[in-house]
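Hi R.,

Here are the chain sequences for the assembly we discussed:
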Amino acid sequence: MPMAPLPEFSSSVKLKYVKLGYQYLVNNFVTLLFIPVMAAVYLELVRMGPEEIVGLWRSLHIDLIQILCSFFVIVFAAAVYLTSRPQPVYLMDYACFKPPITCRVPFATFLEHTRLISSDEKSVRFQMRILERSGLGEETCLPPAIHYIPPRPTMEASRAEAQLVIFSAIDDLVRKTGLKPKDIDILVVNCSLFSPTPSLSAMIINKYKLRSNVRSFNLSGMGCSAGLISIDLARDLLQVHRSSNALVISTEIITPNFYGGNQRSMLLPNCLFRMGAAAILLSNRRRDARRAKYRLVHVVRTHKGADDRAYRCVYQEEDAEGLPGISLSKDLMAIAGEALKSNITTIGPLVLPMSEQLLFFLTLVGRKLINPKWKPYIPDFKLAFEHFCIHAGGRAVIDELQKNLELSAEHVEASRMTLHRFGNTSSSSLWYELNYIESKGRMRRGDRVWQIGFGSGFKCNSAVWKCLRTVKSPVDGPWSDCIDRYPVDIPEVVKL
Amino acid sequence: MELLWTISATLLLCSLLSILWKEFDRRRNRNCYLLDYVCYKPSDDRKLSTELCSDVIARNKRLSVSDYKFLLKVVVNSGISEETYGPRSIIEGREECPTHDDCVDEVDDCMHRTLDELFLRTGISPIDVDVLVVNVSMFAPSPSLTSRIINRYRMREDVNTFSLAGMGCSASPIAIDLVNNIFKTRKRTLAVVVTSESIAPNWYCGTDKSMMLGNCLFRSGGCSFMLTNDPSLKHRAKMSLKCLVRAHLGADDDAYSCAIQREDAEGRVGFHLSKSLPKAAVLAFAENLQRLAPKVLPVGELALYVLRGLRHRLWRSKEARTDAATAARVNFKSGVDHFCLHTGGAAVIDAVGRALGLTKYDVEPARMTLHRWGNTSVSSLWYVLGYMEAKKRLRRKDRVLMLSFGAGFKCNSCLWEVLRDLNDGGAWEDCIRAYPQQTLVNPFMEKFGWVKEA
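And here is the predicted structure of the full complex:
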C-alpha cells in the first residue's frame, strides 16, 4: 500500500490557514488599520486628562451657529449622495406554479406513451436511456394535451396550458402579497416557444383587468435564460419610473413543442422539459423595503452568439421528415462552460471580496509576465455567495458547473432536487430552486444568492440577490407538501 | 472660526454644483435620437401581380364560389397595387406547407438587407452596438432572431438583446419605448431595432371568412433603424423623440378578442379579425389621444378645447347640434405637422384622418404607402415616413406623429421632432416621381371589377 501523502496533507492544512489569514487580512484591511489608530487616540486622550480636553475644546472658539452650519452641510452632502444612487429594486415575493397530480408523468407512463406514439423502437430505447440518467424523478408533470395518445398540440390547448400555469402562479402571488392588479405598472412576460398574437402579456392584461397605461413587454425565443433577461428589463424600467412595481412572469409552454419524430438530438427536450411557471413581483418603493424579501444587486448578461458553435448548440429546425423540433448539440457542456467563464469574468470583480480579486489579479500578472505555466486561479465564489441557484437544465449541466466552480454537494442540492421533483421547467427553474432553499429554512438575512441561467443563443445570464429578512419555514410554495422528503439520493442510473 | 466657515461654504457650493451637474447631465444624455432608418425593399421577383393573387386564391380548393367572390372583393377594395411583395413560399406554391427554412429565410432576407445598408449608411460598426431589439410578431424561433443577428454580424458578448413577439401591428412604438427606457439608465448607448412581420408561416388555408382577410391584406416589409442617446452623434441624427404614449385596452374582453390568432372550426390556425374591431380601435384611439393631447398640443389649443367643451356643456340645450365630436374637436394640426398613420387598410386610414381632421395632403403618405407596399404591419409607419422624406416634406423643427393600432387591443403613438432637413429617397427612390397617383386605378378592379356587382 503506498504511503499516505501525509506531508502533503499537513502542508495543505497549513496552506488552508495561511489562506484564511490572508483573506481576513485583505478583506478587513481598513478595520485593521482603524483599530490601532483609535487605540492611539484613546491613549492620548486618557493621558491628557479631562481638564486639558475641555481646555482644548474651548480654544477652538466654536459657537452654536457654526456647529449648526457644519451639521446642515454634512446632512445636505449626505442627502445629495443618497439621492444620486440608483433606485433599489426589491423583490417583494414570488410564486411558483404547482402542477396538479393529474398531470404527473412517471417514467412508466412516459415510456408507455412513447411506445404507443412512436414507430421506431430504437428511439424509444434511446429515450429510456436518457430518462435513466436524467436525474428526473417520478413526479414531474406534462400538460394535459400531451397526455393524449397521440398528443393534441392545438393552439387552444397551448393557450389553455398558458392560462393554467400563469394564472395559478399570479393568483398565488396576489394571495401572498395582497397585490391589486390595478396597481401593476410594468408587466414583462417571457415564454420562449409559444408566442400567440395577441401576446401572453395581453392575455394577462385581459384576465386581471390591468390598467390601460401598463407598460407591457413580451419576450419570446430567448431560451431558458430568459427569466433573467426579463428581470434585467424590469430593473431598467424601474430605474426610470419612480414609485412603481413590476410583475415578471417566466414560463415555458410545452404543448406546441413536443417532438413527434425520431431524430435523437431532438428527442432530448421531450425527456427533460416539464411544465412550470413563476410570477415575481418587483418594486422600487423605499417603503416596500421593510416587507421585501430580496434586493437585486447585479444582473450580468453574456451572449456567445458570435461564435458559430455556440450559436448552433440549441437550434430549432426540421428533421429529415419535416417535423420541427429543437436539437441539442453534443458540445453543449463545453459551450456552457465557456459561456460561464465569460460571465464570471464580468461578475467576479463586482461580487468577489478583495482577497480573491487580488489573488486572481496577481496570478494573472504572474502568468503573463513570469511563467505562463502557472495554473489559472479560479476564484472561490463560495466566499461571495451563500446560495447558488443553477438552472436545472439537466444533470450534466449541474455536474459541469459544480466542477467548474468547485461547489460542494449542498450548494447544488437545490438545483438537483428541483430537477428531480419538477424536471427542467426552463426559465422558471431558478425560482423553484430559490423556493427550495427557503423551504429548507436556510435563507437568512444578509445571505447572497447567485442565480445562473443558460439558454439558446448561446447565453449565460446571472443575477445576484441579497436577502433582506430571514425567511421562516414552513414556506408556502410548490415544495410545501414534499420538502420533508428531500434531499433524496439520486443514483447515477435508475434502472427502468 | 474662519476655517470652519470656509469649509462649510465650500462644501455647500460643491453640493449645489454637483446637483446642477447631475441634472444637466441627465437631460443631456437621456434624449433618444434616430440616427437613420432603412426600409426593406425585396427583390422584384417577389412582386404580387393580379394574376399571381388570383392563382393563389384559386389554389385553395376548399373555397366555395361565394368565398372566391368575397376574397376578390376584399382585394379589389383594398387600395393595394401590383407593386407589393409577398414571401417566396407563397409565390412558389408552398403557402399551405411552408418549411422552417422558408420562414427563416423570409425574415433573414429582410434583416440582412436592411441591416447591411444601415451599417453602411451610418458608418457604425456592428461591434459598437449596445442594445438590439427585434420585433416580429408571428414568428419566434429558437435561438431567437436577435441571436441570428448577433451570429451574423459577430456582435459583442455584452450586447443587451430583446426579442419581442406577439405584440401585433403596433409593436414599433413598443420597441422604441423599450430602448428609450434603457437610454434613461445608461450613457452613450447605441441601439439597433429591427421590425418586420412574418407571413410565410401564417398563411390561412381554411374557409372562415374572418380569417381570410389577413391573407389578402398583409404584405412583406420591414425596417431597421438605429437609435442613440449619445449627444455627440446628435448632429448626424435625423429626428429626436419627444414623447410616447401607449394605450392597452386588453382589459376589455371584446377588445382583446377582436384580433386574435386562433384555430377555426376545423382546427386550422388563422388570424381572426372580428366585426367589433372598428369599435375597439375607436376606444383605444380615444384613450391614446386623451393622454397624448396634453403632451403634444400647445397650451393655447388645449385652452381652446377646454373652453369649447365648457361652451358645449353650458349651451347644450340651446345648441342645435348635440354631436359631441363636432362640437368640441381638438385640432391636432396645431401641434403636429406630419402624420404617419398605420396602413391597416383604406378604411382605417380614412377613419383616422376624419377623426383627426386631416386633409388629403396629410393622409397622402399613408394612402400611397398602402398602394405601393400594402399593409406591412409593424413597419408600415417607416414606409410612410420614407414617403414624406422622399417627397422632401420633412424640414427642421417639423413635428411628426406616428400612430398605430394592433392586436391586444393597443393604440400606440410617438412624436418626433425633425433635427435637420431630410431628403433621402430610401426605399421610395425609384418610384417617388410616380407619386402621388392621381387616380388609384386598382389593377384588380379592372380584372375583377365584375365582382362588385355580382
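The longest helix of chain B spans residues 2-29. DSSP finds 17 helices and eleven strands in chain B.

Let me know if anything looks off.

Best,
T.
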